[in-house]
Structures are given as structure tokens and as C-alpha cells.
What we know:
alpha+beta, 1 helix, about 20% helix, about 50% strand, globular
Amino acid sequence: MVNRTMVFLFVLALLMSCGANTEQKIIGEWKLDSAYYHYNQFNFSSDGWHQDERYNFLPTGETITSAVNSSIQNKYTIEDKHLNYYDEKGNLVNIYEILSLSEENMVLRVEKKPLFKGANQNRFEVRYFSKVN
């Protein structure tokens, strides 16, 4: 019985440390390098980003997004492998799946609403970031 309890506590601690590790890795300033857009069978990649878009994730659970001499501040949370963005009223506005996160690079995927009516539509965006600091 003691061995099972010890194994359970070890696995629980390991799972909790993985979440904290993700929260620690995301803190800092990130630069958007490129994006991949998919809509049904049409794809488009954008590299050599046309504007300097930066995301500063703060330890307070806030992020400051800056581009073209303007900025916006949002709340964020990380749950499992998802980055959740909230508006100024606290409403959930976007859920990004964290595909990859290291000390230097981050890849996020977000599902998008279809532009046209009808079934069987697939629209998403993948964003590639590099850490600034």
C-alpha cells in the first residue's frame, strides 16, 4: 500500500511540475516570426513577417501585445497544453494549443471559425515565435 501511495505521489508531482514548467517557460518577450494559415484545402505561409509583432508574457498572468506603434493588454492562463486569452471583461476570446515550447521557440495553433456556411470546414492558424530575452 505504501509503494502505491509513493508511486501515485511521484506521478502527481511530475504532472504538476510539467504545468509549472510551461508557465515558467512562456514568461518573457516573444517575437512572431511566421504564421501558417489553413482553410479547407488552401494553405498560406507568411515568413519575413511584415510587422514587428511582440508578445510580452508577464508572471502576473497578463500579456502585452505590441505592433505598429500600439499595444493591447490581456489576461492569460495556461491549462494543460492550452494558452487561454481573455478580454478586458474577463471573457475567454481565444484558446491556443501549445504545440511546442522551449527556452527559445514557441509554436501555437488556434482553431478559427469558418468564413462560409456549410459542413466539413477546417480552418486553423499556426504561429511560430522566437524568444527575445
